[in-house]
Amino acid sequence: MAVSYKAPVKDVIFAFDVLDSYNILKKIERFSDFSPEIAVPAIEECAKFAEEVLAPINSVGDTHGATFKDGKVIMPPGFLEAYDKFKKAGWASMSLPYEIGGGGMPYTLSGGTLEILCAANMSFVLGPGLSIGAISGINFNASETQKDKYLPKLVSGDWTGTMNLSEPQSGSDLNHITTKAEPQEDGTYKITGTKIWIGSGEHDLAENIIHLVLARTPGSPEGSKGISMFIVPKILVNDDNTLGKKNNVHCISIEEKLGIHGSPTCVMEYKNSTGFLIGEENSGLNYMFTTINEARIRAGGHGLACTTGALQGAAQYARDRVQGRPVGMSKEDAKNSTIIDHADVRRMLMTIKSYSDAMRYMMYDNQMMLDFSYFGDEDTKDFGEERCGILTPISKAWISDLSVELTSMAIQVYGGMGYVEETGIAQYFRDARIAPIYAGTNGIQALDLIFRKISLNDGNTVNELFEDIEEITKQLMDNNGFKNLGEILSNHLTQLKEITNLLNIKLIEGDLTHASGVATPYLKMFGQVLGGYYMGKAALTAQKQTTDKDSEFYNDKITLSKFYIEQLLPLASGYEQSIKSDIDVLFNINSGNF
Questions:
Q1: pLDDT tens per residue, range 230-257
Q2: Domain annotation covers residue 293
Q3: How far, rounded to the nearest angstrom, does the alpha carbon of residue 54 sit from its chain's CA centroid?
């Protein structure tokens, strides 16, 4: 049977300490009172909600799934009741700005709630997550009239929102979208086209769905420069903000998918649907990036959540399962032994748990940089935007790629029982597999990092991050207990710097093909070293608290940091030869011979 989900509250709270979140966020005036007295009760309450409301219907969503009939999507049993509780508890709006009716909490805090809620039921959380993207798109780009009309109900959760980007002939490359927007005399537009892969494009959880749709107006420039963004409600909203007539917006099918069965992925059809332009024509792509960057960070969070959820099941199974005699253990001692005493099972569990910690710190830090980019003063805002620029493609791609590998490893801990649906562990693997794909595939994240992000601010942005990593290496080396860890991290940082300089030279020389061919290995190398940086910070933070009553917890954190830096960080070196090699070999096989 599946293991009941238990939120990792202590791990989440410790992550805030590792990042020094409370002190750092005091630099932002609106978060000057953010403290453990606020964060800890919020995380504990979130854990209670996740364990009692969302986790019990997780497998229901997986086995029953969302269903489609006569243009309507019916959510799995229990989802409607859970959403009503979710909405009333304020989880839909906790970290939205208080100016628009949100709870006004930092995005940093939502890193913890995102992990907990998604680990309990990822399919359920995907819908409200898409609403947050739509809210940001409207809040940062729409007119005051549009904000007044749509934001209150979206923020409260009474309505939900979506982003409509992809089309059958245009996935990640939006240059080829063909959805049309014809201007009308009354200032509205008639939207016509088909959009695919629209998460929660239709459902029965809310009375209205506000679609943000990318489309082209007549005579617009070719490519991405000619894209505009429109608000296209499922049900039109009257001037007095009451609901009016049904718009000509239809879900024509939902996809049968590998995972996230409880989240409907819709094909949406627009036929002369009434739409309202956001901002200016031909600026839709810029507006979209307001929402997509948040979505990319959340995708990393989805990978983290699947990993931590899978770890719980694997660890419990390993504690319970009797099988074989561990090498080096006497026959007498082996009578009370389970597979968690086998070295290889320990290796797998340590790998999953230490990666989970590194992933958590990285994702939460990325969320904290969102706080600075949105709410900081002139100096801290620029820093937040630039650091976010570096972190986002890495946290999205490195974490979500790892989540597929680590949830698969959790299945391996179970052995044959992991392949049996009854245990529930396979759902985490299937649900995790979407995270490297949506919000921009991980290959695109790697290209973004190598072509745009390492050159931000003439390279100063990435160098400032390297300086922060170097500072942690010095602190580790000055610490008698961690000197070896500092030396290992320092060596890999030096290697990463050299590779980064090499790639910058390639870019300056115009060798773009080489850069594109090694972008993914470079991102993986960067992520592995960055993980070492965060685990170094964790070791230093835990050491200061080992005298507390939870000394075993903090000692475990030190052990996990040592395991990561000594056994997982060295994997970064393996990418060096790949990045330096001639990539002509990629094209030496005729495409028809694969």
A1: 999 999 999 999 999 999 999 999 999 9
A2: no
A3: 19
pLDDT tens-digit series, residues 553-594: 999 999 999 999 999 999 999 999 999 999 999 999 999 999
pTM greater than 0.85 (yes/no)? yes
Instruction: Return d(Cα 477, Cα 495) in angstroms, integer.
Output: 18
| Domain span including residue 510 | 453-585
Helix (H, G, I), strand (E, B) or coil at 145: helix
* HEC profile of 240-253: CCCEEEECCEEEEE
**Are 436 and 268 spatial neighbours (Cβ–Cβ below 8 Å)?**
no
The angle, 0 to 180 degrees and rounded to 10, between the axes of the packed helices 551-563 and 519-543 is 150
Question: How many other CB atoms sit within 10 Å of the CB of residue 63?
Answer: 12
Q: What is the pLDDT of residues 254-276, one digit of tens each?
A: 999 999 999 999 999 999 999 99
Structure-token pair, residue 583: 């990539």
Report yes or no: 117 and 54 within 8 Å, Cβ to Cβ.
yes
What is the structure's pLDDT at 1?
67
* Contact between residue 49 and residue 396 where contact means Cβ atoms under 8 Å apart: no
Alpha-helix runs per DSSP H in 199-342: 284-320
The position carrying tokens 């809620």 is 117
Query: Could you say which of 252, 284, 316 is where a domain stops?
Result: 284
Question: Which residues 6+ apart lie within 8 Å of 58 measured at CB?
Answer: 5, 120, 121, 122, 123, 124, 262, 424, 427
Whether 134 maps to a domain, the answer reads no
- pLDDT at residue 336, rounded to an integer: 83
Name beta bridge partners: 237. Answer: 243
